[in-house]
Amino acid sequence: MVTNKFPAEIQIIGVNPFVFLPDSVLDSIFKEANKDKGKIPVKIKIEGHEFIQTLIKYRGHWRLYLNTPMRKIAKKEVGDIATFEIAFDPEERVVPMHSKLILALNENPDAQRIFDSLRPSLQLEIVRYISFLKTEESIDKNVLRAVNFLLGKERFIGRDKP
């Protein structure tokens, strides 16, 4: 795994802070990833603090987006110049389905059938949403909402229907 180090100014587009990567760094990552399209998983360090992130191409430019926790830990904000290290991350990123969602889908064959017919990105959105909830109460409530959404009875994840 090749690690590239570079300084960059943190910029913002809309409400999203990001940095541009030097062409030589992008070329190195593309070579390691064996691709130069789609999302590219990377491991990064900002001022020595490690994170996992994804490179995204938006409006014709590759960008490394920096969320608030990353910037707070690195003590860097928009307009600051930071030192970055970046490398392609070959590890598969899997978000496991929460056991309560598995159980609810097993208990409701119609919801399971509809879930299985969804495009993979929407399945992942539902799985991620439930998996990142923190309290048992919110998990229970949202598993029920997800099943009702799949059955066309309720809005969920900002959508009217699956």
Can you count the helices?
A: 6
N-end to C-end Cα span: 40 Å
CATH class categorisation of the largest domain: Mainly Beta
Unreliable spans are: none
In the CATH hierarchy, the architecture of the largest domain is Beta Barrel
- Note the overall shape: elongated
Instruction: Please state the structural category.
Output: alpha+beta
β content, as a range?
A: 25-35%
Q: Please, how many domains?
A: 2
Number of strands: 7
CATH topology of the largest domain: Elongation Factor Tu (Ef-tu), domain 3
Helix fraction, binned, reads 25-40%
Largest sheet: 7 strands, antiparallel
Q: How are the strands of the biggest sheet laid out side by side?
A: 1-7-4-5-6-3-2
Radius of gyration: 19 Å
Mean pLDDT: 95
CATH homolog superfamily of the largest domain: AF2212/PG0164-like
**Secondary-structure element pattern, one letter each:** EEEHEEEHEHHHH
What does this protein look like?
- This is DUF1905 domain-containing protein.
- It comes from Flavobacterium aquariorum.
- It holds the Pfam family OmdA.
- With 162 residues, the chain is an alpha+beta fold.
- The protein has 2 domains: 4-88, Elongation Factor Tu (Ef-tu), domain 3, CATH 2.40.30.100; 99-151, no CATH class.
- It has 6 helices and 7 strands; from the N terminus they run E-E-E-H-E-E-E-H-E-H-H-H-H.
- Strands 1-7-4-5-6-3-2 form a 7-stranded antiparallel sheet.
- The longest helix has 15 residues, at 136-150.
